[in-house]
Write a sequence for this structure.
């Protein structure tokens, strides 16, 4: 006996055929529901009332936007119609997901089987969803010609970096290979090389002012910024730092599972050892409270979690910068303690830079760039900088030659300075 195929409903088609609305009302409903769907897909939220509440709170009722009463009433009616439509889907046993959402879910599932990191699955899923919206139909989405046209549009029409083009190509290659079952998908598109961008670098006084402003807002963020600048860490590396990776006696930090799934060692500044020891003591208090409350242990990579089943509850695996509250792990659905979110820390960096009067595009990664540039200016050789940064190719490290000043950098004196 063959299984019956699950019916698929499309809210756009049903809205177009709904007789209880005027054409003007239908256009208004379509506008806000497209807005809601884009918000939901961007944040990877399940369709339902919780997603609608979050959308209303964060998007509709924004403080920097003035909404008219008739708009709020129309948008509220549109969301009520959509939630009613979802209830009808559930009663009929129909699949309400769009093609883009189904493709993204398939990529996530295949990525889980292949052991991809969460960020990689999210990245590939987002590109696959974009591609599905471009394709428009189930047959078209599985054709290499459609994928070639999509990639061609990304390369030719979007002014994006070479790395972004390659990311899109890798995502579609993964989709066709591990979701569609093609052995070696070949796309007839040539990526466009883009020029190397000079990184944003802060001067030493600017780094100092930035950290002072961070201390006023949050001491943990200020310490994280000191560690990131003092050790040259990436955002994810400083956020995911675990207690056992800090060697106070030897003055080293070990980066596990860094970019390219590689480990490396870098320096722990002597001036930070007491502050880091104090942070470890505070993390120990949080860990003890979690153990007393029976909270699940921290997240571990798949192989380690299977091999050492109780390791997640041991203090040496605990986060250096644990989050203030426990949350649900999106991978396993288990409620546990996560580390401080990189997005929250990065926003704090931006606010501190603005408060410090630094008129540059400052993100947390500027601290890593500044670390490398200041080392170079102080006489450290490129090969050593390459090692502590974890660059695979020294040509990546050479970018700091273009922004360093002094005899170890550009080494150029402007002729204007010689006039007097």
């Amino acid at each position: 006996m063959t299984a019956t195929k699950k019916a698929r409903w499309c809210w756009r088609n049903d809205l177009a055929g709904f007789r209880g609305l005027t054409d003007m009302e239908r256009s208004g409903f379509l506008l806000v529901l497209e807005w809601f769907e884009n918000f939901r897909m961007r944040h990877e939220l399940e369709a339902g009332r919780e997603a609608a509440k979050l959308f209303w709170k964060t998007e509709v009722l924004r403080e920097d936007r003035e909404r008219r009463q008739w708009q709020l009433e129309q948008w509220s009616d549109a969301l009520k119609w959509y939630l009613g439509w979802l209830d009808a889907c559930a009663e009929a046993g129909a699949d309400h997901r769009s093609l883009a959402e189904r493709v993204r879910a398939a990529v996530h599932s295949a990525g889980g089987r292949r052991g991809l990191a969460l960020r990689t699955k999210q990245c590939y899923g987002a590109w696959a969803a974009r591609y599905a919206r471009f394709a428009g139909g189930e047959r078209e989405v599985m054709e290499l010609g459609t994928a070639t046209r999509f990639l061609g549009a990304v390369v030719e029409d979007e002014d994006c970096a070479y790395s972004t083009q390659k990311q899109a190509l890798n995502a579609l290659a993964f989709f066709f290979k591990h979701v569609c079952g093609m052995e070696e998908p070949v796309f007839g598109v040539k990526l466009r090389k883009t020029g190397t961008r000079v990184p944003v670098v802060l001067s030493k006084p600017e780094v100092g002012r930035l950290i002072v402003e961070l201390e006023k807002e949050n001491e943990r963020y200020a310490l994280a910024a000191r560690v990131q600048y003092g050790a040259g860490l990436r955002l994810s590396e400083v956020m995911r730092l675990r207690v056992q990776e800090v060697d106070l006696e030897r003055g080293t930090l070990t980066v596990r599972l860094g970019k390219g799934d590689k480990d490396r060692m870098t320096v722990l500044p002597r001036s930070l050892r007491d502050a880091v020891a104090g942070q470890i003591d505070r993390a120990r208090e949080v860990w003890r409270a979690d153990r007393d409350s029976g909270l699940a242990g921290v997240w571990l990579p798949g192989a380690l979690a299977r091999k050492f089943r109780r390791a997640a509850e041991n203090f040496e695996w605990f986060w250096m910068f644990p989050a203030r509250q426990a949350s649900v792990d999106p991978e396993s659905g288990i409620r546990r303690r996560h580390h401080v979110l990189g997005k929250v820390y990065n926003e704090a960096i931006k606010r501190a830079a603005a408060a410090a009067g630094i008129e540059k595009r400052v993100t947390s990664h500027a601290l890593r760039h500044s670390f490398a540039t200041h080392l170079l200016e102080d006489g450290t050789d490129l090969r050593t900088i390459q090692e502590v940064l974890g660059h695979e190719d020294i040509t990546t490290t050479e970018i700091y030659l273009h922004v360093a000043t002094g005899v170890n950098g550009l080494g150029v004196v402007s002729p204007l300075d010689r006039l007097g």
Notes: Residues 69-92 form the longest helix (24 residues). The CA atoms of residues 131 and 150 lie 7 Å apart. The beta strands are 246-247, 252-255, 264-267, 327-328, 335-336.
